[in-house]
C-alpha cells in the first residue's frame, strides 16, 4: 500500500516531466509544424486532465487532514488551496486555447511557473511536518483515499466550484460524470 506521499509524489513527478517538456518544446513562435502543435495541445490536454483529478482529490482528502493534524494546518492549506485556485483558473483558460493562438504560450508559461511553485510548496513546506504527524497506516490510508478519489474525479478544472470537501464529495461525482461524457463525445483524453 502506497503512502499519501508516494501517491502525490508520483503525480508530482509526472506533472514535472510534462512541464519540463512543455517548457522546452517547439512552439508556434519557434516555427513548430502543425504536427508538433497538435502534440503540444495533446500534452496540455493530458496535463489538464491529470491536474484536475489530482487537485480535486487533494481538496477532498489531503487538505482536510493537513488542517486537522498540523497546528498551522489552516494556514498551510489556505495557502495551497489559493495556489490551486490560481492553477485551476489558468488551466481553465488554457483549455479554451489552441497552440496556434499567440496567448497559448503565455498562459502555459504562467501555469508552468505556478505548477512548479505549488509542487515545491507542498513537498518542502507541507510534507515534512505532515510526515511526522501521520502514522504509516494513516499515510497509507490517506494515499488509498486519494487514489480512489482520482478515479472518479472531474477531468476539467472547475474554478467556480468551492474547494470544500463536502461540496466536492457531493457534487464531484456528478461533475465528473458530465466531464467524462463531454470527454467521450469529443474524444478528449484519448490517444
Could you list some keywords that capture this structure?
191 residues, mainly alpha, Four Helix Bundle (Hemerythrin (Met), subunit A), 6 helices, 78% helix, elongated
Can you describe this structure?
By secondary structure, this protein is mainly alpha-helical. It has helices spanning 4-24, 34-69, 73-94, 102-133, 136-151, 165-186. It has one domain: Four Helix Bundle (Hemerythrin (Met), subunit A) (Up-down Bundle), CATH 1.20.120. It is elongated. Helix content is 78%, strand content 0%. The mean pLDDT is 87.
Q: Look at the helices and sheets and give the structural class.
A: mainly alpha
Helix content: over 70%
Structure annotation, total helices: 6
**Total strands:** 0
Order of helices and strands: HHHHHH
How does the overall form come out from the CA principal axes? Answer: elongated
CATH topology, by name, is: Four Helix Bundle (Hemerythrin (Met), subunit A)
What is the averaged pLDDT score? 87
Q: How would a crystallographer describe the biggest sheet?
A: none
Strand content: under 5%
For the record, what CATH class applies?
Mainly Alpha
Q: How many separate domains?
A: 1
Question: How far apart are the first and last residues' alpha carbons, in Å?
Answer: 30 Å
Amino acid at each position: 500500500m502506497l503512502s499519501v506521499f508516494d501517491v502525490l509524489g508520483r503525480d508530482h513527478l509526472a506533472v514535472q516531466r510534462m512541464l519540463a517538456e512543455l517548457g522546452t518544446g517547439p512552439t508556434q513562435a519557434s516555427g513548430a509544424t502543425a504536427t508538433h502543435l497538435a502534440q503540444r495541445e495533446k500534452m496540455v490536454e493530458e496535463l489538464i486532465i491529470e491536474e484536475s483529478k489530482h487537485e480535486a482529490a487533494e481538496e477532498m482528502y489531503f487538505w482536510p487532514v493537513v488542517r486537522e493534524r498540523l497546528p498551522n494546518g489552516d494556514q498551510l492549506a489556505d495557502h495551497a488551496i489559493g495556489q490551486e485556485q490560481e492553477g485551476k483558473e489558468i488551466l481553465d483558460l488554457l483549455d479554451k486555447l489552441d497552440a496556434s493562438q499567440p496567448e497559448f504560450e503565455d498562459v502555459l508559461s504562467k501555469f508552468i511557473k505556478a505548477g512548479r511553485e505549488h509542487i515545491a510548496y507542498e513537498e518542502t513546506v507541507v510534507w515534512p511536518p505532515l510526515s511526522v504527524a501521520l502514522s504509516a497506516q494513516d499515510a497509507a490510508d490517506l494515499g488509498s483515499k486519494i487514489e480512489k478519489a482520482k478515479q472518479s474525479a472531474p477531468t476539467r478544472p472547475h474554478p467556480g466550484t468551492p474547494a470544500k470537501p463536502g461540496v466536492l464529495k457531493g457534487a464531484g461525482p456528478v461533475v465528473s460524470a458530465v466531464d467524462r461524457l463531454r470527454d467521450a463525445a469529443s474524444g478528449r483524453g484519448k490517444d
